[in-house]
Design goal:
Layout (H helix, E strand, L loop, with lengths): L1 H5 L3 E7 L3 E7 L3 E5 L4 H10 L3 E6 L5 H4 L2 H7 L4 E5 L9 E3 L4 E2 L8 E5 L8 E7 L2 E5 L4 E2 L2 E2 L7 H12 L6 E3 L5 H11 L4 H15 L7 E2 H7 L8 H7 L6 H13 L2
Helix pairs in contact: 2-4, 6-7
InterPro entries: Clx_II_MBL, Glyoxalase_II_hydrolase, HAGH_C, Hydroxyacylglutathione_Hdrlase, Metallo-B-lactamas, RibonucZ/Hydroxyglut_hydro
Keywords: Hydrolase, Metal-binding, Zinc
Subunit structure: Monomer.
């Protein structure tokens, strides 16, 4: 146990499908995986690094986030699965919702569950404060320079969910589950071309992707500077959307509708 605690934690992305990231947290011995839509790359990584899968964290029910769970449980039958209380799953799991704190093991701090409806009605996020770091695993709620599509929830629900997340410390690292960042930035620049932080982020993202690196994790500080869905109060964005005389929710709704067809 002491040996487990002393090892520094690592968080690595496991690419899957065309643009998913399956996040793996480990301490050289034990591992946690978030939203394993595909079991094969997870099992390959676990075996390559000689890790034992201890926990599976699920943010919502879409197949690209849960498709690998059954095979992972057959391969690692002692693994514990946490999944949203307001959604239905066929695999064995512990249903969780806000404000539960999840014990993940002696080697890592507990995870706080945050209800974030919008993308789906039961969507949750996991927030971990470990030593001097803060980590947010937000599924398809918050993306790099964007937010999730509203498959089940309303704009008001998504906007409220994003406000919950941005109330976390600005230094929080944001582990989104899709590589949408550059596309989102290009959309955002159409609304706020005068945002120099956004221009720089576009340049940085191009360098990262060209070199084969993910654009994630982000930080909440960077999202607040560059994510248009968190900047509905900005005059330039309101002017672009013709919502200067509208409220913030109307601006948000107009932006989400525009992004759907971008």
């Amino acid at each position: 146990m002491i040996d487990d605690i002393q090892h520094p934690l690592q968080i690595i992305p496991i690419p899957a499908f065309s643009d998913n990231y399956l996040w793996l947290i480990h301490n050289q011995h034990k591992a946690i995986v978030v939203d394993p839509g595909d079991a094969t790359p997870v099992i390959n990584t676990l075996r390559q690094l000689d890790l034992d899968l201890q926990t599976i964290l699920i943010t919502h029910h879409h197949q690209d986030h849960i498709g690998g769970v059954d095979l992972l449980l057959r391969t690692y039958p002692d693994a514990e699965v946490f999944a949203p209380k307001l959604e239905q799953y066929t695999f064995a799991h512990k249903p969780v919702s806000e404000p539960e704190q999840l014990y993940l093991g002696d080697w890592i701090s507990s995870a706080k569950v945050i209800d974030v409806p919008g993308h789906t009605l039961g969507h949750i996020a996991y927030y971990i404060e470990h030593q001097a770091q803060q980590w947010l695993f937000c599924g398809d709620t918050l993306f790099g320079a964007g937010c999730g599509r509203l498959f089940e929830g309303t704009p008001a629900q998504m906007m409220a969910s994003l406000q919950k997340l941005t109330a976390l410390p600005a230094s929080t690292q944001v582990y989104c589950t899709h590589e949408y960042t550059l596309h989102n930035i290009n959309f955002a620049l159409g609304l706020e071309p005068g945002n120099m932080s956004l221009v720089k982020r576009q340049q940085d993202a191009k360098v990262q992707l060209t070199s084969g690196q993910p654009t994630l994790p982000s930080t909440l500080a960077l999202e607040l500077e560059t994510n248009p869905f968190l900047r509905c109060h900005m005059p330039e964005i309101q002017a672009s959307l013709h919502t200067k005389n509208a409220n913030l929710l109307q601006t948000f709704s107009a932006m989400r509708a525009l992004r759907n067809s971008y």
